[in-house]
Amino acid sequence: MKRFIHYDELARDSRFVRQTNLLATVLATLPDDVDKVVEAFWALDPMIGKSVKGTAAEPLYDAYGPAFALVALNEPLRADDPAVKTRLLMRMHGIFAGELQALEGAGRSLWDFPEAPWEFKMNMARQCWDEARHVQIYEKLLHHVGGKVGMFPETTFLFECACADDPAMRVAGVNRGLEGLACDVFRDMIRFADETEDEVMKQAIDYVLADELTHVRFGSEWVKEFTKDDPEYFKRTQEYQRQVDKQFSFGGSRSDRKDAAIPIARADRKEAGFTDEELDELAQLSGEGPSRKTMRAASKIMRERHRERQRKEREATA
Amino acid sequence: MTQSRMYPGTGPDEHTTFAPYSAFDIPADLRELYGRYDVEATARRVRNFRYAEEWMMMIMGGWLATIPELPVKTGLGKIIWETAQAADVLGRRLPELRCGRASVAVSESPNEGFAEFIQRAAEPESPDLTIEKLVGIFGVLKPHLVEVYERTMRETDQIADAPTIELLDDIVRKTRRHLAWGSDVLDTLADTDAKRERRRQRTETLRGLLETCGGVSGELAHA
Ligand SMILES: [Fe+2]
Ligand SMILES: [Fe+2]
Fold it and tell me: How large is the average pLDDT for residues A291-315?
């Protein structure tokens, strides 16, 4: 078995479809400018249209065009939102896929770095079990909220962004970047479960969040350990993590901004070994993307454009 | 009236009156001293066992990403952790066997043949090879380990080497659960004659390799 696999090689059963990772990468670089957001998303339209075919996202695409992902990602989960069910399903499915990739990432850390210290391997092995339980928990929760595995396309960008070929960068990417994002998302899910009085969801995710704190702590400790004799290496690792965090901020959807869909879980992250300085930096770099107002305006334009296109298509075939 | 003594005195008539039992009397304990392995031999075996457990854990970790069946991914997650724990307790036995404090993370293949066997078990990569992947660990290596661990438990000094026996006992208990899981999965996945034949062939090939090199302790041939 070779070391270091490409994200295309993540194995899935017949229920899954893939969505290219471009969307997330594009989101990370967008300015707060309606026209630029429209332009970027419209360019991805053929790819988005293709990947949603036959999935639960197809009706959303039909209704909103390529902006449906923006609508789902960028808006907070609120119990009184008429589209809350769809948003919840999309988020839950995204988390389920994220847990799968976290499981695969932890497993690959065991195989890709055979010379790593024993304690590191123990931590990664434990994480394999935890992530395996998380996959199971989210499969149950997905059913609990009326969804099913494979109902939306999966983007493998978590694995792509986080799985570096270098051990310090791997743990920075997976255990601090990806797992840190998990802390933010799960804290927000607990908030939502609380709001909707869903005790099953609240308790299960609370346990998952406790595990994730442990995984972030593994990351915090191993980045220090792997780079302890090489300040230059430490700096490069931090730089890498900043880039991962930027991508995992989805253009500001996950940030400290007032309009963020997913706030940064500061208290949880501090318990897991993030310093105030790091959290301030995260708040800064994640808050730079387009505002919700911009995203909404861009979504509206794209929706109109999409409808116009549908109308023309209908006329052409009539 | 003479009072019974609580502690022995220095004179011949100054014994206590407490009943004299052997350390093996309650409950009746028939264990005897002397086993097949001395300290060095047991330490070597523990390093060999650790080698197998550590590699299995790393190999299964690598496979998580390339196995498409969801319950296999999640089932392996737990087995990886338990296999790592097995390697960990084996390692922690080594300093107790005069191998030095730094020996906790030492693994050692008994010979080149066993190291080669491990690499062959790790070979399957493509997502359509779940059967070949699982056979190596659950059809060949883990069953072999259970056999060798149980023999070691029987043959080592039952009294002096009891810590090794105890830790192997725990590992065997969990490994048996892994075997039950593995054969359940393989029975389900190998659901056609062609797939059953793949399972059979893979088992035969790897078993042959394992026997040639003498297994995890290198001594299968002369056992
Ligand atoms: Fe997780
Ligand atoms: Fe995690």
Answer: 91
Residue B63 neighbours by CB under 8 Å, 6+ apart: A1, A107, B76, B133
**pLDDT tens for each residue of A137-170:** 999 999 999 999 999 999 998 888 878 899 999 9
* CA A48/CA A36 separation, integer angstroms: 18
pLDDT per residue over A21-35, tens digit each?
Answer: 777 778 778 888 999
Residues of A with CB under 8 A from a CB of B: 1-2, 5, 9-13, 100, 103-104, 106-112, 114, 117-118, 121-122, 124-126, 128-133, 135-136, 139, 149
**Residue ranges of chain B with per-residue pLDDT less than 70:** 1-2, 221-223
Fold exhibited by the domain B37-222 = Ferritin (1.20.1260)
CB A268 within 8 A of CB A208: no
Cβ pair A130, A217 in contact under 8 A: no
ipTM of the complex as predicted: 0.95
For B17, the 3-state DSSP assignment is coil
Residue A54: partners with Cβ closer than 8 Å, 6 or more residues away: A17
Out of 1.20.1260.10, 1.25.40.10, 1.10.20.10, 1.10.10.10, the CATH code matching A7-317 is 1.20.1260.10
Q: What is the pTM of this model?
A: 0.94
